[in-house]
Amino acid sequence: MTSRSNNQPRGDVPATRWNDYYDWPPPGGLRHIIFHADQNGFASAIKRVGRRVLIDPEKFWQIVDGQTAE
What we know:
Elements: E1 13-14, H1 18-21, H2 27-35, H3 37-40, E2 46-49, E3 52-55, H4 57-66
Antiparallel strand pairs: 1-3, 2-3
């Protein structure tokens, strides 16, 4: 899967700009991951500052790489 782009951002990425840097997940899938972050293991990669949602790309991809197919 070619989900990681060559245009790597520096620092946390606002959820609204995620697809400017990465092809996966699509916006709807990202919203699902964010909404269910406490249940799906992504809570450590997602930061909430007021209404703004930021994603730590390094942690996000570590979590993706660490998950196993069931």
